[in-house]
Amino acid sequence: MSDQEVDTEAKVSGKPTKYCLSSAALTVAFGNHKNQTVPLHNVIAASYHSDARLLKVAYVIRRKKKGHLALVQLDGQVEEAKAESASNFAKTTQEWAYKGIKPNRRLKILINPHGGVGKGVAIFNKHVEPVLRAAGCSLDIVHTKKHGDAYDIAKSLPLDDFDALVSVSGDGLVHEVLNGFANHEYPRKALRMPVAPIPTGSGNGLSLNLLGPDDGFDVVAASLNIIKGSPMSVDVFSFTQNGKRTISYMSQALGLMADLDLGTEDLRWMGDSRFVYGLLRGLIKFKACDIQLSYKAAEKDKKKMFDTLKSRQKIGSQNSQPPTASMEEESLALPESKISLDDTEEWTIFPEPLLFLYAGKGPYVGRDFMAFPVSLPDDGLIDIVAQSTTNTSRTDVIASFGGAAKGELYWKDSLHYLKAHAYRVKPVLKKGFLSIDGEAYPFEEFQVEVLPKLATFISTYGSYNAPFHEPGAKR
Ligand SMILES: Nc1ncnc2c1ncn2[C@@H]1O[C@H](COP(=O)(O)OP(=O)(O)OP(=O)(O)O)[C@@H](O)[C@H]1O
Fold this sequence. Notes:
Number of domains: 3
CATH architecture of the largest domain: Sandwich
Number of strands: 24
CATH class of the largest domain: Mainly Beta
Oligomer: single chain
CATH topology of the largest domain: Tumour Suppressor Smad4
Bound molecules: adenosine-5'-triphosphate
Structural class: alpha+beta
């Protein structure tokens, strides 16, 4: 045992068990079983209860290499002679497991019982609540009863009573929460409240972006993120339509990309497969959506955007900590729009008919589609993807969707990809779908502008966790 290690022993279910703690991991050896080594990040609680001489340790581990995380709670009976060592061990484990992280977080939890295939409550009760309770979090749980409840709760949330807001839902409820915060008495302070998803909707893009493709649908990984993750500042968008401003945090879609979401509501029973079905249906029709797109571009060079992403990934979490706001700043209103609706200076009108327009932040918009692979949480820009119907065939576009889950569409010459400060859409025809963060909005003229670093999510990685490579690159 080195200076950096602490150990103790106890009996778990009558079996002698050895615990060894290093600065990186906890190792547990039960009787003759193989040692279990748990990274400290996955250790969520350790305590010693002198009255019953009980050492309690809780962590989450993957039982199979590619399996989901599962909660392990060890209650070890400690011999009298080992009481002091067990007590020190518990204290040190708790300290090391929460280095730089606030333990026992106070959580406001919103559950949409009807999100996705309607299993949100059951999943929360069985898999999420036990983990959060084992970590000593305090839970204030509300089941939303209708559309709009999450907005109202966020709008009047007593901000000092909670460390984070947890949304047991899909991406739609988070849209409501952020808009509730934007209309709070102290909107800036409200938007600094860290928000984290437990993925139980049909669209769970936010969870995929924060946790990555392997863990994005793992509700225990999402719980661990809530317990151990750090606040990460993110840009959001000001979406103005008919003089009304709404906050969008993820995506705006028109044409094929809106049809596959809003045009497949009747196929909810399919879970997120309905998006794939909608995509194929739309690609076969290959119908242009009649809109005029214009934007204020910041960058169009795909290689440069890719290189910026890679250098940001190298810096990792150092960049992501939210700046602390002063009291005066926190009581300010939301920032005003900087770009007026009639501004045309440095604006470009996109000249081609569009199969779809997709704009947003966060690489994944669904499990099967990394739409914005070079998106960054806080570059102050919005990524815009425009697929024209000229100079490309239906077969080419269908073929290019083969690599959509890995963001490979990005490299196709026929796909226009750019980063912009703002953009504007004017529908030419009357009929169509417009999806804002997966929610239906009127198919009417609108403008979108970036509001830098206004909202806060809880993140384990300090940026999005979406693996994206150059074509042919070694993995
Ligand atoms: N009890 C409820 N009954 C009906 N709708 C609700 C309820 N609670 C919330 N909603 C609404 O359900 C919508 C979708 O929420 P959620 O984020 O959970 O799922 P989603 O993945 O975005 O969409 P989906 O409904 O396709 O699963 C939101 O607009 C929200 O306002």
